Amino acid sequence: YKGTVKGDTLTFLMTIPQTGGKDITQSSTSTRISGGPGFPGKWQTTEANIAATGLELTANGNNGLVIKYPEFSSECAGQFDGKPYPKTGSGDGAKSTMAFRKTGPASFEFTTFLDGKPYDFDAFTVSQDGSVLTDNETPASKKEPNTAVYERQ
User: Fold this and answer.
1) pTM
2) Is the dihedral of CA 19, 25, 26, 31 positive or negative?
3) Least confident among 1-5, 23-27, 142-146
């Protein structure tokens, strides 16, 4: 990540290294709502250029899930029991865990923890025809929620 502040404009640029040399680049621009000077303050995103990335889900036994974000080298294998499981991808930090919980026949959620503290909350729902997975993500900081839509490949 690289963050830059110029007056009341905050720009983030993220490069995600990939094998084969085709790195993924994402960026966002935000305008200051309050606070300052510098980085401290409340910001509103005005533009976001987010690259399409993948998500892989596989069963982990009868009551679990392995979730992988390949472009981020992130992975976690857990059970739907609400207990934290370590993230084991090469892009994951040593103090990062996830806790999974089933919320319905076509939905589940997980909380990502960093050093034992909630960092991110994701609620997933599968479409009725099974072709679309929607992720409603809310950072623990209660800042801007995000929605990602994944189409079955």
Assistant:
1) 0.72
2) positive
3) 142-146
